[in-house]
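DM from R.C. (forwarded with permission)

"hey, sorry to bug you on a friday — could you get me a structure for this? deadline for the figure draft is monday and I only need the backbone to look sensible"
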Amino acid sequence: MRIGFGYDSHRLVEGRPLVLGGVAIPHNRGLSGHSDADALLHAIADAVIGAIGDGDIGRHFPDTDAAYKNISSLDLLRHIKNIADKKGYKIHNVDTTIVLEKPKLAGYVQDMALNIAKVLDVPITCINVKAKTNEGMGFVGRLEGAACFAVCTVEEK
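My reply, with the result:
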């Protein structure tokens, strides 16, 4: 059994959709980034990459590569899952936390978990998505961005 940890954060900006866990969430601002800026899926990808000892998301999908411009992070996570498979690892479970002041995410976390479970080919009971605020503190509290954390366990096949 191996454990990986992932973190990602992005600024909130006007003119971009807000996508977390592969779910489009109605809001007046979205996350800024080279891809779709889905910070939750980026944190999960980094957790999987960390668990299998294969660098970080930037090594696999550099923001200087036009091929990844506006790409769905579900596709990026699918690619990372394939790398884990090829290296002989099976993803066991994922636990995540999204830190975002607004909008409230409780109504979306189940759909996020479903998307993640499908891409990682694990039962939904092996995926946990939590949403928290930062109680008005820091860049999240000032409504400047979002931060996401993830841990993942994998086991050798």
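R.C.: lifesaver. The mean pLDDT is 96.
me: no worries. The radius of gyration is 15 Å.
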